[in-house]
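Students often ask why we bother encoding 3D structure as a string. The short answer is that it lets us treat folding as translation between two languages. Here is a chain of 224 residues written in the first language.
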Amino acid sequence: MSIEEAIGRSEFFAQLGGGDLDALAGIALKRGFGADEMIFAEGEESGGFYLLDAGRVKIYKLSGSGREQILRIVEPGGIFGEAAVFSGSAYPAFARAIAKSEAVFFPAGEFRRMVESNPGLALNMLAAMAKHLRRFAALVEQLTLRDAKARLAEYLLNAPADSGGRVRLEITKRELASHLGAKPETLSRALGALQSQGVVSVSGSVIEITDAEKLEEVSRGAEK
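And here it is in the second language, the structure alphabet:
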């Protein structure tokens, strides 16, 4: 997919006109990353931000002991690394490709100059950052107020599912555990508990939701 097509299909730039999209494409660069390749590290000087075109990228932090906490998984059409562009600071977290990925890179200086002369771009950036803040607020709530089983239940309820209620995990169970703020063995116990309750059925990387109403109760911590 061309840079113009990638920008044009992104929800982040959906409100921009053709001239603005062409101008953005004029400063953008296409970059590719192999599976498990580091894109940027926490503390690294920010040179710009990315729009993911294909693949998946995880944004994560590392504790002092080296434990990984995934903050979010970026899907195609999502942006990442944008906060540091405007703060003028270093990247606040790590970004690593989960699978072979392609992204459009927007250099910080050129993009800031465009934003200064284009209120629409500025509003889009504010909307994106507000969305991230809401996501992080929800993450804090989940990690502090809900147990692993409730967090897993909410994840499954919000994950894309086919018509049969089957969710295919596109990340490893270890990465899912990190995303949910749990140890892998804790996630395994939570998944086993849901399966023994007849709420889900697990077959490899496919999890079938067999009782959505009960799963909703579990996610709220309201199961009987």
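Translate back mentally: The first strand starts at residue 29 and ends at 33. Keep this in mind for the problem set.
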